[in-house]
Amino acid sequence: MASKQKNKKYTNKPLIVLIIVAIAAVVFMYWIINRGKDTKPQTTGETTAQAEQEEEPQVQSLINFNNTENAKISDGEKENISEEMTKEKTYQGLTIKDIKLKTENGRVSQLTANVENTSASDFAGGKIVIVYTKQDGSELERINGVLPPIARGESNTLSAGTTEDVVNAYSFRIEASTEKD
Q: For residue 165, which of 60, 101, 135, 181 sits 20 to 30 Å off, Cα-Cα?
C-alpha cells in the first residue's frame, strides 16, 4: 500500500508543475500587456477630460486669430473675406475660380480653387509659386507648388497649404517657378 501512495505522489508532480507554469505564463502575459498602460488613478467627469488634454503635446499655431484684416473668425476657424481674393484669376490659359482661403484645424492656411483649362491646348503642368499679397500690392508670402497637367476643356482642384498665416492676404497671383528640378 505504501508503494501505491508513493506512485500517486510522483504522478501528481508533473501535473502540479504544469499548473504552476501555466499560472506563471498567465501572470507574465498580463504583465506584458499592461506594463505600457497609464498607472495613474482614474478620475471621472471633467477632471478626466482635462487630464487627457494636459497630456497631449501642445503644438504652437502660427495662425494669428487676433489679426482679422480681410478675414473673419467663425467656429474657431479663420476665413478670408477679401473680394479681391475670390475674383477669378488666370494663369497660362487656365481660369482659377471658386477660390477659398481659410485655416484648417487652426494650424494650416489652406487655399482651394477650381482650375479650368479654357485655352485651345492642353496644359502640361509644372511648378508654380503662389504669391500672396497685401492690399498695397506688396508680397506677404511666397508658397511653392505644382499644377498637374490639365487637358483642354477639363478642370482640376488646386489645394495649397502652409503653416504661415496668409489668411489675411488681400489677394494672390500665380507665377511660374524658377526653381530647377
A: 181
